[in-house]
Amino acid sequence: MITPQRYGPWAVVTGASSGIGREIAVQLAAAGLSLVLVARREDALAQLAATLPGETLVIPLDLAAPGAPAGLLARTAALPVGLLVNAAGFGSGGAFLDTDPIAESQMVDVNCRAVLELSHGFARRFAAQRRGGIVLFSSIVATQGVPRSANYAATKAYVHSLAEGLADELAPYGVDVLASAPGPTDTGFAHRAGMTMANAESPVRVARETLAALGRRRLVVPGGFAKLLTAGLTVTPRFLRVQIMKQVMKSMT
Questions:
Q1: Which domains does the chain have, with CATH numbers?
Q2: d(CA 247, CA 181)
């Protein structure tokens, strides 16, 4: 169970204005942690903060902007942060040739570069204090190429690999690192990505299973459908997994 004593009294949650990030924030606040809430929409963050027990700090920030992660690190330097939840991210669906290259580059900035910079900055703090936790959001699409969502899947492959490496590297410092790999989830993700999602899991369950796994496992696949699909893909040759995911994405885009 996550408590203020386990990692520290403060947690940073990116993508906290909606979806999984919001539910993570709600559950952490209920566990007694103070929260730094980060997302682009200040009004949504303020509304969330008003409903939470305990202390909060609202930081409206577009993590795709140059210098945004460094700014977040600077603004939290004086806080005893012990937990980082990198829940901010977005995706896209459809033919790669039809995508907007600027938007696709911004996706890499949010899903990869910001995750790297924040993980690096907070990992140094956590290692120095000999305790801490980092949650990175991978996906069930991270373990093979995915036609019609090629760039998004590639960003999640990066996050998945980063989490695996950091989990081993930071363990001697008392820092827990978890990769959470959910499947379709009922958030604003699908609308922004131009997708329709069947068998979507609730963000409440995804958040609950993710937080329950931190410190106990290095990878969690939250949700029933995600577990089922992952189990089937695991025993399938990689080139066939690509074809399976192609058909899945055709039905969603």
A1: 4-252 (3.40.50.720)
A2: 20
pLDDT of residue 197: 54
Contact, 91 vs 107, CB < 8 A?
Answer: yes
246 is catalytic: no
**Which are the contacts of 107, defined by CB distance < 8 A and separation ≥ 6?**
89, 90, 91, 92, 151, 152, 155
Round to whole Å and give the CA distance between 72 and 63: 9
Please tell me which residue in 152, 158, 246, 250 is annotated as part of the active site. Answer: 152
**In what side-by-side order are the strands of the sheet with 219-220?**
56-60, 34-39, 10-14, 81-86, 132-137, 175-180, 219-220
Using CA atoms, how far residue 129 sits from 3, 86, 175, in Å, is 17, 20, 9
| The one catalytic residue among 156, 158, 227, 246 | 156
Is 227 part of the annotated catalytic residue set?
no
pLDDT 10s digits, 207-245: 999 999 999 999 999 987 788 778 777 778 888 888 888
Q: How far apart are CA 104 and CA 96, in angstroms?
A: 10
Q: Are 13 and 85 in contact (CB under 8 A)?
A: yes
